[in-house]
Amino acid sequence: MSTTRASLRWIRADVKARRGQAGLAACVVAGVVTALIMAATLLEDGTNPWRGLFAQSRGAHVWIHTVGVADPSAALARLDQVTAVAGPYRTAPATLLQGFVKSGVTLRAMGFTPPEVARPLIREGRWLDPANPTGVVVERSFARATRLVVGGHFPVRGVDGVTHDLTVAGIADTSDQGFYPERQPGLVWAPADTVRQVDPVSRLSVTGLLLEDPEDAELVVQRAVTVLGGEVERAFTWRGIQAEMELDNRLLGLLLALFGIVGLVAAGLAIANATGGQVLGRLHDIAVLKSLGFTRGQVTRMLLAEHAAVGLAGVAAGVLIARLLTVSVFADTVAVPLSLAPLLAITGGTVLTVVVATLIPAWRGGRTPALPAVPVAPPHGRLSRLARVALLVRLPPALVLGARDAFTRRVPAALTTFGLAVPMMMITIGLGCWATLDGFRDNPEQVGQAAALTVRPGILSSAEAKRIAESDPAVAEVYPGADVEVFVPGQNRTVTTRAVGTSRRPYPFPVVEGRMFARHGEAVAGQGLLDLIRQRIGDRIRVTVGGSTVILRIVGRTIEPERDGEVLSLGIDSLAGKDADPPEFYSLVLRPGADPAEVRTRLLAASRNGLDVQRVVNPAERLEVVRPVIVALIAVLALIALANLLTASAIGLRDHKRDLGVLKAMGLTPRQITATLVVGTGLLALIAVVTGTVAGAVLSAELIDLQGRTSGVGAGIGRTPDPVTLVGAALTALAATTLTALVPARRAARAQIAAAVRS
Amino acid sequence: MTPVLAVKNLVKIYRTAGAPVPAVRGVDLEVEQGEFVAVMGPSGSGKSTLVHVMAGLDSRTDGEIWLAGERVDTLGEAAWAVKRRKHIGFVFQFFNLVANMTVADNVELPALLAGQSARQARERRDYLLGELGLTAQADSPPGRLSGGEQQRVALARALANQPTLLLADEPTGNLDSGNTRDVLRLLKAVHGNGQSIVLVTHDARVATMADRVLTLCDGQITDDGRIKGRGGGVSDVVRLRG
Amino acid sequence: MRLQLLALLAKEPAHGYELKQALEQTFGNAYPSPNIGQIYVTLGRLEKDGLVRGVDVEQSNRPNKKVYHLTAAGLDTLAIWADEPTEGPRVRDEFFMKLVLAPMTGMADRMALITRQRRHYLALMQDLNQLLAATDRGNRYAILLIEGAMLHLQADLEWLDRCQEELL
Question: Which superfamily, per CATH, for B33-58+77-227?
Answer without folding.
Answer: P-loop containing nucleotide triphosphate hydrolases (3.40.50.300)
